[in-house]
Design goal:
The structure is a homodimer.
Chain A lengths: L2 E5 L3 H12 L3 E6 L2 H7 L5 E4 L5 H6 L7 E4 L5 H13 L5 E4 L3 H9 L4 E3 L1 H14 L3 E8 L2 E7 L9 H4 L1 H5 L1 E8 L2 E4 L11 E7 L1 H6 L5
Bound molecules: adenosine-5'-triphosphate (2 copies).
Chain lengths: ~220, ~220
């Protein structure tokens, strides 16, 4: 269980607060909008009306007590930047700010944000991967050199088992699941036999993963 | 390589178009805003100025030729709903619409959208998982019963190898990577020895994964 502070109850901030609370974390929310704050009262640990551009108010929140502080203000670039920077100066342990534009992201990272979330661009990147390339549906790029992707089973692999193909030792990727008829099932055995009717979900270095769709 | 139609060059639509094009797909974009369309000309296959609420214009795009059609209009609920529904009536193979609110999503799915993307809520869900629970950083829930999560190494596992612990056969999860000092490295060998300084990234059924953080 963690303690989190969420400043700003726009769509991102509100969904974040509700989900965090649902997962059993201690959630405090702050917003200038009274109606938005009142709406959250039944669901979160603490909900306060306040303008976080006001340093006194920000100080009174006791920001050092939170595991994470989120600045979920998108539209008002100045507010989001000032509040992020102020939180860090007051000793916040870890500040995550929401950005709407790439330039916004750069400023935030240079001025107190430990991490930045950019919902539209992140969603666009995922969609481009998932719907874009033939045979490859990227679920996740954990880092630039580690991915989890879904690929069609190469023809030469059909009818063979994972152990027989020596997938791990030969290609340096892990087959972690298969997808049949849209349903994903974990795969955890070397004697699992692959077939053309399924897709496999592989994990490993992005370049190593990229080899698989190219196999005969 | 796929052919995609993207209607609406807001932040999501624009990032999607650029990334899709970067990945080598054929991209056509349409927007009412001349400046936005012109900005995309160097990067995409075709860029057209047009109001997609106008059925003639929509028809002229030849929507059946595209693998995927994206309706990337968030603010104007009516426009996004009408265009989505119209695309389906004109025979579009697969329509993906962007939603800003949950009620919006429901209407879209009932009126022609094969899939809906909800950037703020999706980002909030991921952030809640990643930053919310102790010892567990959920990267991904591929389905309700398959997850990829990051956990601390249980004390009783420290100093032992993955093969020695018989992780796969005993717990039915795959250790696919480890995270040391913030960097993620793929793990693809049974003789890999675990230590307390790292986190491990495990994949498998969500209930099976949940057992791991509880181990002594
Ligand atoms: N100085 C401030 N102190 C506290 N709350 C603030 C402050 N400035 C803005 N807010 C609140 O932040 C919330 C989110 O802001 P806004 O709607 O501008 O961002 P947004 O990026 O459009 O949100 P989203 O995209 O998540 O819906 C609003 O509810 C607003 O009242
Ligand atoms: N009928 C229409 N035909 C073509 N383009 C349209 C139409 N209506 C709106 N658009 C375009 O769609 C784009 C996105 O719309 P809007 O900015 O309202 O959505 P948004 O959800 O706020 O975008 P984002 O969150 O992705 O930045 C705008 O560039 C707008 O010009």
């Amino acid at each position: 269980m963690r303690t989190v502070l969420i400043i700003g109850l726009g769509r991102f901030g509100k969904h974040l607060a509700l989900r965090m609370a649902e997962l059993g974390n201690e959630v405090m929310v702050v917003d200038t909008d009274e109606a938005k704050v009142e709406e959250m009262l039944p669901f979160v640990t603490r909900a306060q009306i306040g303008d976080c551009m006001n340093e006194k108010i920000l100080r009174s929140l006791g920001v050092t007590n939170f595991d994470f502080c989120f600045v979920a203000i998108g539209d008002n670039f100045q507010a989001s930047l000032e509040i992020t920077s102020q939180l860090k100066e007051l000793g916040a342990r870890y500040v995550i700010a929401k950005a709407d534009r790439t330039i916004h992201e750069k400023f935030l990272l240079r001025n107190g944000a430990d991490a930045v979330i950019h919902p539209e661009r992140d969603a666009a990147m995922r969609a481009a991967r998932a719907y874009g390339a033939r045979n490859v549906f990227d679920y996740l790029e954990l880092t630039e050199d580690f991915s989890v992707i879904e690929v069609a089973v190469p023809d030469s692999w059909a009818g063979k088992s994972i152990g027989e193909l020596r997938v791990q030792s030969k290609y340096n990727v892990n087959i972690i699941a298969c997808k049949i008829g849209g349903k994903i099932r974990p795969v955890a055995g070397a004697d699992y036999v692959l077939s053309k009717e399924q897709h496999i979900i592989i994990a490993g270095n992005a370049d190593k993963c990229a080899i698989i769709p190219e196999l005969p």
